[in-house]
């Protein structure tokens, strides 16, 4: 890890009427790491993602990306900054092919005029070749060659998860937000997802901010973990440090005594 701060979240708060969904959450994501948010259902993890994505506007606090406040960025402008995202519930164009979905993901790089498009000018042709080349690189990277011309609607769920990951990578992000990438996957598919995440970090040099429930995946790929509960920060550290934290154990399993009883019953 370079140690450079890519994303900074400071005292982030979001209220829905009298309900505080996120309460004074602060953390920093360093360039070149996998940083994971964990916590029980309703902890506020995906809400933090929605705040970073500008889907929600924070009630208080600040989010900065590469030193630039995100408050002035429109939701449709976030991807152009180098932030891409996947969703827990897959968001793809089902009646388009894998290739077409990835080409749509490249729209943030389009800088062509209307007249240039209409006349298919040399610059437009060169940009189209570049777009196709980048998309094919992503298809090769994620071993999607067999599915490139298949409609998304006809793909197994596990493959769709990889296609959504591919669509995000097609934008060439600096920061990749993964919202529960193992959700709905079997053990083998989760192992493959861990492999992709490690390669995204190590081979592509992309920083990953992830929300995840599968602690085996979290332990395998994460550099640092932030645990949340009821909208607040419980613990921050390595996967082992966070999983051993008494507050995290209680949030997942009940009291520390309950967790001890559970461990003894398994022994």
UniProtKB/TrEMBL annotation:
A GO term for molecular function: ATP binding
Protein name: ABC transporter ATP-binding protein
Keyword line: ATP-binding, Cell membrane, Membrane, Nucleotide-binding, Transport
PANTHER family reported for this sequence: ABC TRANSPORTER ATP-BINDING PROTEIN, CONSERVED COMPONENT OF ABC TRANSPORTER FOR NATURAL AMINO ACIDS-RELATED
Record-linked Gene3D superfamilies: P-loop containing nucleotide triphosphate hydrolases (3.40.50.300)
Organism: Roseateles violae
Domain ABC transporter: 7-255
Pfam family, one: BCA_ABC_TP_C
SUPFAM superfamilies: P-loop containing nucleoside triphosphate hydrolases
Alphabetized InterPro entries for the sequence: AAA+_ATPase, ABC_AA/LPS_Transport, ABC_transporter-like_ATP-bd, BCA_ABC_TP_C, P-loop_NTPase
